[in-house]
Amino acid sequence: TALSWRGKYQLAEEQFLKVLEQQPDNLEASIGSGYNFAWNERLDRAEEQFRKAIDLAPNNVGAQTRALSLH
């Protein structure tokens, strides 16, 4: 997410997707990817990642809150 904070969304996306290819159930990468997409105004992809995070950890309030805030 440090790359996202510096506005390097494409590079951050590549890194998140690389992690998710190798570890599709990585909750932190799903949430980080969701934030990266949201900050880059790619809300459809952000919602997809936050919903995946909710599927992985249904009690994760942060993922639930962020997914709902996109609507």
Describe this structure in words.
- With 71 residues, this protein is mainly α.
- The chain has five helices and no strands.
- It has helices at 2-5, 9-22, 27-39, 43-56, 61-69.
- The relative contact order is 0.15.
- The model has no long low-confidence stretch (mean pLDDT 89).
Based on CA atoms alone, the radius of gyration comes out at 11 Å
Helix and strand element order: HHHHH
- Poorly predicted residue ranges: none
Number of helices: 5
Structural class designation = mainly alpha
How would you state the average pLDDT, rounded? 89
- The portion of residues assigned to helices is over 70%
Q: Give the biggest beta sheet.
A: none
Percentage of residues in DSSP E strands:
under 5%
Oligomer: single chain
The count of strands amounts to 0
The span between the termini is 23 Å
The best one-word shape is globular
Short overview:
This protein has 71 residues and is mainly alpha-helical.
What attributes characterize this protein structure?
71 residues, mainly alpha, 0% strand
